[in-house]
Amino acid sequence: MAWASIVAVLSSVLIFSAFSPGCSLSLNYYDKTCPHAESIIANAVKNAVSRDKTVPAALLRMHFHDCFIRGCDASLLLNSKGSNKAEKDGPPNRSVHAFYVIDNAKKELEAWCPGVVSCADILALAARDAVALSGGPSWDVPKGRKDGRTSKASETTTMPAPAFSISQLQQSFSQRGLSMDDLVALSGGHTLGFSHCSSFQNRIRSFNATHDIDPSINPSFAASLRGVCPKNSKAKNAGATMDPSSTTFDNTYYRLILQGKGLFSSDQALLNTPKTKDLVHKFASSQEAFNKAFVNSMIKMSSITGGQEIRKDCRVVN
C-alpha cells in the first residue's frame, strides 16, 4: 500500500501543477472567428457514426481519458515521438480508437479558419455530439481550450482503473476537482461501448483466496462472462458490451448495477457507500435525472484546462 500512496501523492502533485482551472471558457468563443466550427465537427462525427456504431463510445472515452491526465488539452491525441512514449500508447489507452474522426474535423476546420479551433475543443464538442447521436442529451459546450505540448504514457497510470474500489475512485475524482456526484454521473458513460476480457477477468476467475468469483457479481452474469472469456484464451477481441443497449445512451447501466451485473469492479463499487448507492437508485429510476446530472458533470470535467497552443495537426505539437 505504501507504493500506492506514493503514486497517489505524486499524481496529485502532477495533476495540480498541470491543470489551470483559471483559463476562462465561453459559449460564444468562436462566434466571430469560426462561426461554422460546431456544425463542421458535428458533421465529421455524424459521418463516422453512420459507418461505425462504436464511434460514439470511442469519442466519449477519448475525451474522458484526455481530461483525466493533464486537463482537457488534447494531449491524448499526440503521437509518440522518438524516445517519448505518448499517452495514447499507455496501457489504459491502447484500445482507444476513432482518432481519425478528430483528424477529419480538424482538416476541415483548418480549411475554413486556419489556426483558430483547438484540438481540445474539437474533442469536447465531438464527445457531446457522440452522446446526442446515441439518443442522449445535448448541451452547450464552453469553448476556448488550448492544446497541450506534453504527452507521457507514464502518466496514464493515474487513470481510474476498472478494479478500483470506491475509495480509490473518490480519491481519483477529487484530485481533479470532481465530486462523488460527478463520479456516479460520469460512470454512466459506461452505458456506451465494449470492454475486453482483461478489464474484468479478475472478477470471474481466482478472485481471491476464498472466492473464485467476485461475490458481488450476479452468478448467471458471471457464468455468461466466463463463456465469452475462456481461461487462457488469446482471442484479441474477446469481451463484452458495457450493457446490452451499448450503442444507446440510456440509464440501463444503473439498473444493471442494482442487479449485480455491473461489468467492472469499479461499476459495482458504486453501491458501497450510502451516497453513491442513493445516486445509482435515483439514476436507475429516472433517465431525466441521469441526463441532467451527466450534462452538469461533463461540463465540469471538460472545463479542466491545461494547454498552451492551437495545434495545426492534432497528432503533433506545432
From TrEMBL:
Keywords: Calcium, Disulfide bond, Glycoprotein, Heme, Hydrogen peroxide, Iron, Metal-binding, Oxidoreductase, Peroxidase, Secreted, Signal. The gene is POD12. Its cofactor is heme b; Ca(2+). Its main location: secreted. The lineage of its organism: Eukaryota, Viridiplantae, Streptophyta, Embryophyta, Tracheophyta. PANTHER family: PEROXIDASE 25-RELATED (PTHR31235). The keyword Heme applies. This is Peroxidase. Coiled coil: none annotated. It comes from Betula platyphylla (Asian white birch). It is found in: Secreted. Residues 24-318 form the Plant heme peroxidase family profile domain. Pfam families: peroxidase. The record marks 61 as: Transition state stabilizer.
